[in-house]
Amino acid sequence: MQQRFRGSISRARRALICASTTVALAATMTVAAAFTSPAAQAATPSYKVAVVGDSWISGEGLGNYLSGTDTASNECHRSTRGWTQQVIMPGHSLTIGRLVNDGSATMSLAFTACSGATIPNVLSTSKFGENPQLGRIPTDATHVFLSIGGNDLHFKERVEHCANPIVNCLEEVGYLSNMLTEIDSLKPQLTTVLTKIRERASSARIILTGYARLFSPYYMCLGAINSSEAAMFGTAAERLDQVQAQAAEDARRAGVDVSYVSLLSRFDGRGDCSLDRWINPLVFGAPAAMHPNLKGHTEIAALVRGPIAVATKAGAMKKAGVSMGLATSNVYCGLRDGGCGQRYEKVTLFWSPATGANYSSGQILGKYGKLGYENGDIGYPTNDRSCGLADSGCVQSFQNGRIYSSASAGANWVHGTILTSYLALGAQTHLLAYPTSDEFVLGSGRKQNFQGGAMYWSSATGAHFLRGQILDKYVALGQQNHVLGFPTKDRSCGLVNDGCYAVFSGGRIYSSNGGAFFNRGQIMDRWLALGAQNSTLGYPDSDRVCNSTTDDCHQSFQDGALYSSTLYGAKWVHGLILNHYLVERADAGWLGSPTTDEKAWCGMRASFFEHGKITWQSGVGTKASSSTSTTCPSTPV
Predict the structure, then answer these.
(1) What does the pLDDT look like over 402-453, one tens digit per residue?
(2) Other beta carbons within 10 Å of 477
(3) In this structure, how many other beta carbons lie within 10 angstroms of the beta carbon of residue 22?
């Protein structure tokens, strides 16, 4: 429960705050160590950072103040524990504070922020005898971190006025409306600050941070500031957040490279009235009161990480000559997994702690949007869009897959095992070329179409591609719904007479100049044993056909046919004997299924069947007999 306090902070409270600060600092170091920089770059980037503004950015209340900023004549209170010292810049693995302390050549810091500073103190007037902060910003600064406006609105004095036990500010006529009017009038002044900073350091990316609701959750405020007063100051904080965001937006449209970072959502429920507060409690006369504690500063450091990365990426892109157009939005955060983004006329930047900052554009960006951007299964981009491929092609990698685009195929998403197989084949340089569809469900598996074929996947068979006559045949047969099932190997070519084949869970399809046909079962096994397309039979010239009643099957080949039955297996019949067999209606006729291959018999050629045989003899031709005897006749046939 909040209490009313008078005078200076007690010795016991000082001890408590110091102990809490020690614990929070350890937590801060752990969090900072857990941060990892984005993807490794060729060289560690160098930064010149300026910290400008008031006590919310100087680190009021955190202790460990820089020499000369905690004296009777100078109470700027610039702390080495503030969020600006905890930030890890893109491409670095150590915090700004650590790099500065170590004297790193890749980091310089102009720390001018001062407790109690107002907008005039930034632009033109001194504070504690120091020159205006604007003139101390390096002209070649790469980044400016800014927090300003709270003191111009006299928030501290307003809160202490309402906390006075003999005052009921809610009953004062126009108290809230007057405060909101003053907040609205701050917008042009904020825009001026941002514009002046740009004039001073034209290449700097400005990160403007807002303020939090001082007292939340409202219903727990039962002391010097009650729940109704807490809600009133919450309304003021929300209006100030809107004004700061609009000022940043106006400046951005005028060409200022600025990103506004709101603290409202991050600090929601963590105000003075919270049991787990990130803001120091109201204590009359205590400079630390109503400022973020160490935990609060750590949270701000985590919150600004995305906007800093996005702004830094945008600056690098501009320097590299990437065609971006004008920014059409401020940096926006609160995306999935703590991500941020920013839109430009021609590109959009995306950042997440896991992927760093990357941009997308063109057809790929359009496709990414249709997939739900970072909220879709595809996740965040893990690199920038890359172009220069054949057919005006581009590609971009994401957490779950890639998007390929080309002039003729459009943009499509490839992922999972299909992507792995596609990459192993050579991606767009393979005969498959570019994808023409996304992966889609096909029965118990998946399929994806490409310019030069299709990829099929099932959990049992993996991902394999088909193309040409074999693909056409497979589709005509009904794909996975046919007894062939899913492919278990990629289509393979290089066989005799321009032949190709593909293996399926239930058989094979072979293609040649004569077309594409499937075989399976006993007939396929026998044909393979005979030498397949290299045998006398050659390639199949029909599909395998079976009798649903008897399970007898047959298939025609370039030089003959194979007939199979349950009792006798698959037998080869060819030439004139085959012609005669067909006249007798083959296995559906009186002879039944063959029981042997054609063979030499008694000076003739003969094929034996269930109910007879057919013989061939030079000068005589073929003759069918109902005898199944294998004994040579006593007289010539």
Answers:
(1) 999 999 999 999 999 999 999 999 999 999 999 999 999 999 999 999 999 9
(2) 17
(3) 10
